[in-house]
Amino acid sequence: MESSVEEKIHRKLELISKMEGEINAFVEIYENEALQSAKEIDKKIKEGKAGPLAGIVIGIKNNICIKGKTLTCGSEMLKKHHATYDATVVEKLKAADAIIIGSLNMDEFACGSDGTFSKIKITKNPHDLSRVPGGSSSGSGAAAGAGFCDATLGSDTGGSVRCPAAFCNAYGFKPTYGMVSRYGLSDMAMTLDQIGIIAKDKEVMKKVFKTISGTDKKDQTTQLADAKRIRKGEIKTIGVPKEFFESIDSRIEKSVKAKIRQLEKRYEVTEISIPTLRYTVPIYQLLMTAELSSALQRYDGMRYGYPADRNEELYTAFAKVREAGFGKEIKRRILIGTYITMKEFKDAWYTKALSAREVMKKEFGEVMKKVDALAGPAMPTGPWKFGERMNPLEMYAADTLTIAANLTGLPAIVEPLSNSIDDGAIQYYGRHFEDELLFNVE
After folding, report:
1. Of 205, 209, 257, 424, which residue is 20 to 30 A from 161 by alpha carbon distance?
2. Catalytic residue among 103, 136, 138, 155
3. Is 136 annotated in the active site?
4. What is the third-level CATH fold of 5-228?
5. Looking at 8, 12, 61, 200, which residue is catalytic?
6. 61 an active-site residue?
């Protein structure tokens, strides 16, 4: 047991020094700043002035701004870019006396399900170095799973917090859309993204969520966060969508169903059906690529990214910057998103996807009137080995169980089922703004 926060930081840094060379979770490690903060917090503790997260060690996904620090978004395009301000979540963590120990690796611009699409480095699963850590918050999952941090922040567009949490044997939480400010997040898809938390200890996760959540005048999506949040109450009924168990690994199915049998002893558990769950991947892919292609237009060499040659014709200069700065998966998604939003094809693809999303929201709304939460697998398989899944369609399908929470804006949490990463994790969906009730499901 550490006798001081400073001693705790030394232990964390020793562990990082020993294991980081193989795991590659960090983009930057803020050793000096962390030690200085620890000394200041130890002093505050002695004076009785310490904040609610005093001594909690946090890692931050490298698409969330930390003033003066490198903000790469996992891309060559921003390899030398430095944030000019703190994201709201970072401000809140610092004010609560959490210690930010470093920034964490990620798939390029959050595009990826396994962590292999970073252009900075490739992160490995701390429980098996031959396997992927999950993505896109690969460094966040690996750092929490390895014990480098007490908790990490990531961004979740379609499961990007919950996937690495499940693969790295940790808890992963995606809040209700609008519960946590996204100011300072370089988001991938503005109507889907939410900053989330990964931790080995659910109590630590609860403390971090309490600190970073709430209304922020800098982010209009959070305007209802304080007014609508529900802290009290309990979950009594749980629905189990049969669609969650289609095409999943037999070992995952066995372990999740065993957990559900345990839940039946405490809750009223009912099998249900949500037909639109079968269409989550195409709905998500169409909407996400449309929003991504729009968001990445600013990386043109004039405003952000590699400096363009201003002596060249404008579109030629743009094309050269984007060719050099973006990876293959980013280009694929930009092309899809641009195509489906063209005037000639918009109604056939993008508009229909928006309509399908509304149908899904209505279906979930009706179901959540009958049950307090949903339960099912977090991921259809355990973490695969590097090189096993190179087909983009296989990669996209891996998110099939997590996507619906982003399309509907619902909160969701994943919980590991054993000490083995092959047994997977169970996932619970809750109602809008009832985030804190999900922490109590056992």
Report:
1. 257
2. 136
3. yes
4. Amidase signature (AS) enzymes (3.90.1300)
5. 61
6. yes
